[in-house]
Amino acid sequence: MNRTRLDTFxxxxxxLTRHAYRMLGDCGxxxxxxxxxxxxxxxxxxxxxxxxxxxxLRSVTTRLCLDRLRSARVRREAYVGPWLxxxxxxxxxxxPEAAAALADDVSFALLLALERLSPLExxxxxxxxxxxxxxxxxASMLGRSEPSVRxxxxxxxxxxxxxxxxxxVSHEDAIRLRDAFAAALQKEDPAALAELLTEDVVxxxxxxxxxxxATVPVxxxxxxxxxxLGLQRKGGASVKRVELAKINGLPGFVFFDxxxxxxxxxxxxxxxxxxxxxxxxxxxxxxxVAERYAAQPSGWS
Length: 301
What we know:
Layout: H1 3-24, H2 27-47, H3 53-77, E1 89-90, H4 96-106, H5 108-115, H6 119-131, H7 135-142, H8 146-160, H9 171-187, H10 190-196, E2 197-206, E3 218-219, H11 221-235, E4 241-247, E5 250-257, E6 260-270, E7 273-280, H12 287-295
Parallel strand pairs: 2-7
Antiparallel strand pairs: 1-4, 2-3, 4-5, 5-6, 6-7
Helix pairs in contact: 1-2, 1-3, 2-3, 3-7, 4-5, 6-7, 6-8, 7-8, 9-10
């Protein structure tokens, strides 16, 4: 493949990878789907002329993700405990606008809501509403009529309406709440912790059956507060290091024990309080987080 074609693909790779991650909720699967897309595109170029590279690449990526989703649904039916998407960790000091856009784009709430859609509903919504692909093109990609994909996207939109944030939290407020939360836990102060939580706060933990984690979400200010303080008292000594991070655009933490990364914790904020927490403990979903910190072992600087 000539250099111009390669440059074209590399310029589109971030968009394709983001689309695949939103389809699949798994960074490794997303990267594999995009790499397979590249190979199929390269093969197609040997045999024919591709008139619109971007449209071709989006179409192939979507179809490959749909194939993976169908097999993933079988695996997730046997998944132990709550399923969360693989966390995407970034520098806590990154541009606040970029972080807010990421939080909207790949928020845990959105990705979990997407899980409740059928594969075709998810694809139609993400292509049209996420990538601004015209319905005529979406219909061609999915092998459905245009009225059909309009209905798919509309149903998806209805399901996802409640996941959209009412208002973005300012960078300053996010940092303040994150730091106050950390301080309340370190001091084991139940009153200070309760003041930071919404009445209906929910903690969702994903251990995948591989490590200890709550097998159902824990909801309610009192129950969540007691659980957090209990875990701090019992397991705090095993934590050797904590790094501040943005996790799927949300303020959060990466926890390390003597073996390396042990979990991530992301805080979803609403009306000046913490409304949800997403805890990733499944070691298979922490591999890329560990690799990121291995490349920068002293954490963010």
